[in-house]
Amino acid sequence: MEEEASNNYEIMPVVLFGTIFPIVIGLFLRLPKLIIEIKQNKQWTFDWIKFIAIALPSFYIISMSILPLAGSIEIPEYAINRNPTILIIAGAVFGFTLLDCLKK
């Protein structure tokens, strides 16, 4: 994918894959427990505090890697996070927390 992006000068698919893949991994990490909770016969709730305290900051970190490449939004250089490890961790945390906020 990186080789194709360097040939076509399009880096957006590589960045989107690098952003979405950790989110999907985080979703898959939480999925078994969610399936167990689905089998219980309780009412669904959403934990807004956990979503605001954990998911939104991690989504902010993720979005700071995509928005400069979108071309329409100018973001200061200090706000752009170029460390892929932090982006991977933030993506996995966002995906996990997104499903963890759903409670039964």
Quickly list its features.
104 residues, mainly alpha, two-stranded antiparallel sheet, transmembrane helix, transmembrane, membrane
Distance between the termini: 40 Å
In total, the number of strands is 2
- Uncertain segments of ≥5 residues (pLDDT<50)? none
Residues in helix, %: over 70%
- The coarse silhouette is elongated
Count of alpha/pi helices: 4
Q: From N to C, what is the helix and strand string?
A: HHEHHE
Rg from C-alpha positions?
A: 16 Å
Which sequence of strands runs across the widest sheet? 1-2
SS strand fraction: under 5%
Largest sheet: 2 strands, antiparallel
Mean pLDDT: 84
By secondary-structure content and strand pairing, the structural class works out as: mainly alpha
Structurally, the number of domains stands at 1
SSE blueprint:
Elements: H1 2-8, H2 12-39, E1 45-46, H3 48-70, H4 84-100, E2 102-103
Helix pairs in contact: 2-3, 2-4, 3-4
Describe this structure in words.
The chain has 104 residues and is mainly α. It has one domain. It has helices spanning 2-8, 12-39, 48-70, 84-100; strands spanning 45-46, 102-103. A two-stranded antiparallel ribbon has the order 1-2. Helix 3 (48-70) runs antiparallel to helix 4. The mean pLDDT is 84.
Summarize the structure.
With 104 residues, the protein is mainly α. It contains four helices and two strands, in the order H-H-E-H-H-E.
